[in-house]
Structures are given as structure tokens and as C-alpha cells.
Fold GTPase HflX.
Amino acid sequence: MTHDPDVHVDTDVEEEQLDLEARHSLKRVDGLRTELEDVTEVEYRQLRLERVVLVSVWTSGTQEDADNAMAELKLLAETAGSEVLDALVQRRSHPDPATYVGRGKVEEVAEVVHATGADTVICDGELEPAQLRNLEDRIKVKVVDRTALILDIFAQHAKSAEGKAQVELAQLQYLKQRLRGWGGNLSRQAGGRAAGGAGIGGRGPGETKIETDRRRIGSRIAILRRRLRAMDATREGKRAERHRNQVPSVAIVGYTNAGKSSLLNRLTGAGVLVENALFATLDPTTRRTETADGRIYTLTDTVGFVRHLPHDLVEAFRSTLEESAMADLLVHVVDASDPDPAGQIAAVRTVLTEIGASSVPELLVLNKADLADEGTLLALRGSFPGALIVSAQTGEGIDALSAEIDERLPRPEVELRVLLPYDRGDLVDRIHRTARIVSLEHTGEGTQIHARVRPDLADELAPYRRD
């Protein structure tokens, strides 16, 4: 087709329209099949792994954004215990309300599924119950969406009683809206000659199994919420104890697999599980540590985030995530070697806003510097001038990070000199734990201390002041 140069073309309209060929085709994404290393791994995985095909609808953003999203879905699928056989992407202005990829493309997906021998299709989005039902009816294999996939990973990795309860609550809330009947398993109303010979004894209350299941799920949700409220009280008690002792708190937040647990181990020697997997640790770990000048503070490793973190999970883990909202400082860890670190930062900040932690001071830390190339690090330095570049693996930049945390922690406000008798060791201990000591000397009369302390401690020390 040729265009008359004298005819003005509205470029804005052209940009809004999707390429016709792209809309009418499914694009196969090369290089996303799970690679198995050796024979023993193959034998093991053939017994364990589901064989899956990934399907995504690309609605906005660049081609690079679509590729990054599909690569992340592959990592999620493999973390859940799947072997990825193939990946398909369709360009559309919005997902099809009935079948997600459009009526005509479902047949193409079915052909790929049957050709590869896959037993599951994973869609990169949260599907409506009708979409799930329509896809399963037409493709004839199990279909799960991104939300169900993430919930499954959380269920595998939850270890504590609180973590298991939170995951079960999120799963039940997701499942409650997606119950469906399965033919003969349900009691169906029948009567008279219309019952096909059933007649007397075939009449019943109708199709009630779904309603019964929904009621049982509702009861279980209520039990889990009561159990979590009791656990919240315990967590709140520990948090109140730290506030009462005026111990500053630092929360490590960030994208999943950005290296938060490795960083906690580096800073405190906590010995938390470290694994190159998404959502390897779900249960928050809090450790006491101290600054170079002796002030004690707590460091908490929180659950990792991901793009489009399911809303049910955010709600179920709200009490855990509140550790971030109540912290004095957020150490936001970013994987510097990731293809899209800016996207990771945006996704984490979105969740922080949801839980009310957007106003907490943030220290951006670009981790895995040993895996990132120099050009990437230079570009990140330009985009995020205040960020620190570290490597939890090699220890690079850890000392600078510790010093920056020390500098940003709340500092005591009142400067004073006191002479404490030796029978007031409790006050000396509190000064060591919560104050910044300038000088300390043991004399014949007692312990002479020059320090900067909080106002309430200054009131207690008033009788011993020697300013």
C-alpha cells in the first residue's frame, strides 16, 4: 500500500492501533524451555515436574517489557516445580473476556499443548472464573493463572505456623470465587418421568455441593482469621517491647531473589536460609545488632515482592508486611544484575504504598554487583544517585552500607554529662543500649559518662548530671 505524501496522517491514532499482523498471531518465545543438566536430574524431574506451556497477553509497554515478564513467569513456574516446554505471547489491546487469548487462538494453544505433551497451561494474568472454565473446556488440560502459581509457591515455602495460616487464608479467598461443579459428583434435582428412569428416590435438593463447599470455606476462613489475630497480638507485643526500650528498627525490603536474606546474614550473621529461588524465605526474621558506636537496633528480613503481587496475598500477609510500615528505615534491596532493575523498584514501591510504608525513609541498595557489568552499574548510578552498590556474596560495599545505616538511624537528642554510682548499673546499661556515648571513664566515685540520650532517659539521669 502507498501513501499520498500530501495526505496528513494522524500519527497518534496510528500509534494507538496495534499492528494487525501481531494481533492475529501467537509469537513463540525462543529459549524459555527448561534445560535439564544430567541424566539423574532428568529421571528425578520426570517423576516430579509438571510439563507446562506458558501463555501471555501483551497489552502495553515495549517488547523488552513483554520478554522480561515472560522470563519472570518461567522462573515462577520452575520454582513451583514445573518443566517449561514452550511459551506463547499474543499482542492485544486487552485480554479477551471469555478466553483470555481470543477464541481463535485457543485452538492454536491447544495444538501446541498436544504437540508438546504438556499437562498444564499457565497464563500470565489473573483469570476470571469463566475464563478458566472456558480454557480448560477447550484445551482439555489444567489451566492455572499467575495468582494460583504464586500461591502454590508460597504454600511450598511456608514453614512457620503463621506463614502457613497466611498462605491458606489467601488460597481459600482465591478459591472461594472459583468453585465449579464436576458433573456426576453433584446432587442434581430429578423427578417423575423426566428423571430418565430415576423416578422415586431420584428426587433431591438440587445441586448443593458448591454451596456446601463455599460455606465450609467461609467457616475455615473465619477460623484462620481468628488464629492470625491471636498471632498478631504476639507480634504486636514484641513490637511494643522494642518501642518501649526505644530500639530503632530497620526493615530489609525488595524484590524476590534480590539477596535480602544474604544481606541480613552479612550484616548480622543471622544464618537465614539463602537459596537462588523466588520466595525462598517467607517468614520474617528479626535480629538484634549494633552500630559502630554501640547503639542497638533491630534488622528485619521481610517477604519478597513481585510484579502484580496477588491482592489476597497482600491482605493475608498484611500483619507481616506492617513490620516495614513501622520501621525507622527501609533498606530497599535491588538486584543490579536483573534485566529490569527499575521495574523491580517500581513494583516494590507499589506494594509499600499499599501497606502504608511509602513515607518511611528509604535507603536504596543495588546488590549483586559481582554479577552486573560495569556499564549497567554506571547507568544505575546515574538513575539512582543516592543508591549504594554492594555485593552480599563477596562483601563489597558492606562496610559502607553499615556506616550509612548508622548515620540514618534516629539519634538521641539531649547531650549531657553524668556521674553514676556503681549501684546504678541499670542506667549504665540503658545508656549503652540506647544512647550515643562520647566518652566513658570509671572513677573512684562512679562511672562518668558524656553521652547524647533520648529525652525520657535524660529525665531519669537528671539527679546525676555534672554538666
